[in-house]
Amino acid sequence: MRYIGKPILRVEDDVILRGRAQYVDDIEPPGVLYAGFVRSPYAHARVVKVDLSDVRGAKGVVAVFGPELGFAPGGKVRYQGEAVAMVVARDRYLLYDALEKAVVEYEPLPAVLDIFEAMKPGAPLVDESLGSNIASDEVYQGGDVEGAFREAARVLEGRLSTQRVIPAAMEPRGVVAVYDGAMLTMWSSTQVPFDIKKEVAKALDLPLSSVRVIQPYVGGAFGSKLLVYPEEVAVAKAAYMLKRAVKWVATRSEDFKATTHGRALVLDYKVAVDNGGRILAIEGTVYADAGAYYWGEGLADTAAKMLPGPYDIGAARVRAVSVLTNKTPLSAYRGAGRPEATFFIERIVDAVADELGLDRIEVRRRNLVKRLPYTNPLGVTYDTGDYPAVFERALEKLGYYQLKRWAEEEWKKNGRLIGVGLSAYVEITTFGYEAVVMRAERDGSITVYTALTPTGQGLVTALAQVVADELEIPIEKVRVYWGDTAYVPDGIGTMGSRSITAGGSAAILAARKLKAELSKAAQLLNCEPVYRGGVFHCGDRSATIQDVVKAVLRGDAEAQLTVEAIYHAESNFPFGVHLAVVEVGPETGFVKPLLYKSYDDVGQVVNPLLAAGQIHGGALQGIAQALYEEAIYDEGGNLITPNLAYYYVPTAHEAPRFEVYFAEEPHPSATPIGSKGIGEAATIASTPAVISAVEDAIRKINPRARIVKTPADPEYVYKLMWSARG
Amino acid sequence: MKITLKVNGNIHEVEVEPRRLLVHVLRELGYTSVKVGCDTATCGACTVLMNGRPVKSCNVLAVQADGAEIITAEYSDELMEKIREAFKRNHAAQCGYCTSGMLISAYHLAKSGAKSEEEVVEGISGNLCRCTGYQNIINAIKEVLV
Amino acid sequence: MYPPEFEYVKVYTVGEAVRRLSAEGAVALAGGQSLIPLLKLRLISPTLVVDLGGIRELRYVQYGDVVKIGALTRHYELENSPCPLLRETARRIGDQQIRSLGTVGGSLAHADPLGDWPVAMLAAGASLVAEGPSGRREVEVDDFFRGPYSTALERGEVLTEVRLKCPPRVAFVKFSRRHNDFALVAVAVAAEVEEGHVKWVRIAASGVADKPIRLKKAEAAALGSRLSKDAVVEIAEVAAKEVEPPSDFRASSEYRRALVKVGVKRALERL
């Protein structure tokens, strides 16, 4: 293979590095108008009256839209920042002047901000029609849970919690919509242009063929842009009604409240263990702080189903409860339930080791799934892998024992609190279908259309690698187009670490189809051609792709020059071991991440340079969850970390050095490409590795210190460290 | 108010209200490499060189920049091209939204004779990146400083 | 993100600035790094913004027995100052972009309770020269900071110069969640040590009150000390007991106290 597996440099970079990549705010159709939203300052309130009369007459205002457009359903707002009206003006400065003139009468209602308070009878209801604040309540189980607890030598229980985080992609959300009287065209900073197309077509009662949605360059998404948001539909409606181009781009403060948040899962657990540290059963409840609308369906459920992790636990019963609160709605954030599950199970395994006086590595060895495929007690079947072998190899490659010894020496010689932490994970990636359209051009080059929606991953380059290898042609001849609903019948997009597996496999199938089609035309050569290196061979006669295309266009042969392939992907399961080294200030509890190493079995690595980039970025986000970030609401439901000055996205100062390794003997997925997803792996593995490292460090002061939440902020760490001493 | 901006060597005379931010004026003049990423002057996506110093253009009134020489990420000279090549070689850009600001900070680091990794980290610490974890950016810049 | 409308005037002399700033609703624009964020978030709505950027005569640093810093000196201009207090403080402010434009005078007049220059100048025992409608006056830094974002400057007064004797010994310890953030707690110590004893010392802390304050009991304990390991610990204890820090979502009172103790200890060790 010429390209797959190689660190091919990105074709996306040229336009980005010249400053010419177009993001949604760079798209400025002629005569475009600017939309803004009047948003609730209250976390929970009835909207008594929306008076836009002063707004209408304000300088530069072209149109105003009140709740009749669909804002504040049920006549109330459920979270601070929820929109109640939209204003369209010809200039953004004038727009923001005009927004201030809206007079909205609210009747504040008691807000519910804590999931446990929200579940109590008599709690204020976020959605009255539900009758309670529980949006979803499911139980997942398998195996003989009661039997396991009866047999258990020990039962451990506890609560683990992850904080609410803000995905904070560098580009805030935005959308442009243009309606020319017949066709609606939209550009959106989104992961899901096809979903937007469907919802907007429905909302405007337009045929799908009259709606085109384009995903331009997107400045990061991480799962926060995979919903169709109310603003996107509202702006489309405005464009439709005004027959103009309308643009909305969120300010950062606005984005903090209007774009979905992540994590915020809590686990109450009980585990049954034997004396050897084998976990016999796990029972518990995962609670999600779902926010004001249940947009992020199934996060608690995913965490529940993946709770056993890579460990062979015979029985489990896990309840997944999603609770409504008066906060910004929760949705997917890089990992979407799996980082939380991994944090939970890794903390539990460490706790088991502690309670039984066993080594943390040894307990993992004893519990790792030995043979795959394996179906966990909640019914999830892990496809391929060899966890024990990869685990051992990882320990060696990452230098776990050497680092532990070094940390010990630094403590003895210099009193430094250095901690080394490890986490092992299995994660579920890929799902659904992906479509690719592929065309052979007259000059033998290949045009590829994908429904994938990259937001920084480098997928366009990776897909070109895959196609170039399948067609055995130089990569310069392959051009991949993405992000436009006009190109491909339908698609799901980039999320869930699915792109190179689902999209790459679809591309391989399309390429094979194209070869098969073109080889029909090569029967001009009067034989069954053999395809090699971009050329159809028949003995001593040959025809290039170019020759075949021209023949078809001339009418000398028949073949489809454009093919379409739809691939239905099954989930696949990467496995890996990550390690973190941190230093803790004994006098302050401040934690400095020093080093981060990863060892991942992700099947076929299509581009190791891009794959390592995913590890670096994902790991820093997980490190940030472990140590820095937290979206905090006060008792009034005000988001008191309302912008990047108060919400601690790490800078270069806070980042450790990364060392990335991929398994020398990977276990492929059963797909044409053989890859497994990597986009979320590091966010999944990093938080528990760092937490484990911090705990390792502070146990030199307080041997019983146990971290049960994220973030482990300095004050929390400080108190844990010194609590035993009073 | 009439102001004059020299951007990447091009002279622009514009009529601006005093409240207009430099980032918006630059973008309206077509320099869309300059990005808006926040509203608290934290993220640095709007970083440009103004009279040889890196500044956050979202935190400058256009009228304050009257008569200034500004460099944005659309600029090209031998050093900037070297930086671009190093960024590409090192996979220092993912979504690209922070990249304009990073290029400017990198350019300034090189021009001001920075030598160490510490200086690079300090130099880009006013540019937030959510995608790369910073390591590849730091490596790319170090290559150019050599 | 979009400032409200305001009248704007650029001035070229201090006299002009004083005249313009005497109007109600007028604010001074120096580097803009503190003012413009307030405008963007529409937290303030001044009627007139007076741009001091044209007053070239306020950009200078004169070294001598007394160091004199023009109020419009940018932070970055002090990053390599021969005076350690100035150098160390300048380097810890925000990031390089902020330092390109932000000014020493602007920072002091803005008086963010967690700002770096305020606590550093408090430790240095600086004096601040202001010019206003009633003429020029010099205010000791001890009398300058009144509360959060509140100083002794009267309407129409412009800070023109900061004067200080460069302390022979200095240490600046800043605790912040991220390296470049405003301080959670910061400690600045300036001192002179003669024949192994502390001849004089000023200890200032931010993050423990609604403005930077001097820890006078700790100073008293440090006076004359040889700053042995044990002495330093004792002085730090005094400092910790002396402060009455607030509790908020960023840190509890007792944790701030702990940081003050560590900060004073480390600062004295570094002297």
TrEMBL record, chain B:
InterPro entries: 2Fe-2S-bd, 2Fe-2S-bd_dom_sf, 2Fe-2S_ferredoxin-like_sf, 2Fe-2S_ferredoxin-type, 2Fe2S_fd_BS, Beta-grasp_dom_sf, Diverse_Oxidoreductases. One of its GO terms (molecular function) is metal ion binding. Residues 1-76 form the 2Fe-2S ferredoxin-type domain. SUPFAM superfamilies: 2Fe-2S ferredoxin-like, CO dehydrogenase ISP C-domain like. Pfam families: Fer2, Fer2_2. It comes from the Archaea. Keywords: 2Fe-2S, Iron, Iron-sulfur, Metal-binding, Oxidoreductase. PANTHER family: OXIDOREDUCTASE WITH IRON-SULFUR SUBUNIT. This is (2Fe-2S)-binding domain protein. It comes from Pyrobaculum calidifontis (strain DSM 21063 / JCM 11548 / VA1). The lineage of its organism: Archaea, Thermoproteota, Thermoprotei, Thermoproteales, Thermoproteaceae.
UniProtKB/TrEMBL annotation, chain C:
SUPFAM superfamilies: CO dehydrogenase flavoprotein C-terminal domain-like, FAD-binding/transporter-associated domain-like. Keywords: FAD, Flavoprotein, Oxidoreductase. PANTHER family: XANTHINE DEHYDROGENASE SUBUNIT C-RELATED. Residues 1-169 form the FAD-binding PCMH-type domain. The keyword Oxidoreductase applies. It is an enzyme of class 1 (oxidoreductase). It holds the Pfam family FAD_binding_5. GO terms for molecular function: FAD binding; oxidoreductase activity. The lineage of its organism: Archaea, Thermoproteota, Thermoprotei, Thermoproteales, Thermoproteaceae. This is Glyceraldehyde oxidoreductase medium chain. Coiled coil: none annotated. InterPro entries: CO_DH_flav_C, CO_DH_flav_C_dom_sf, Diverse_Substr_Oxidored, FAD-bd_PCMH, FAD-bd_PCMH-like_sf, FAD-bd_PCMH_sub1, FAD-bd_PCMH_sub2, Mopterin_DH_FAD-bd. Its EC number is 1.2.-.-.
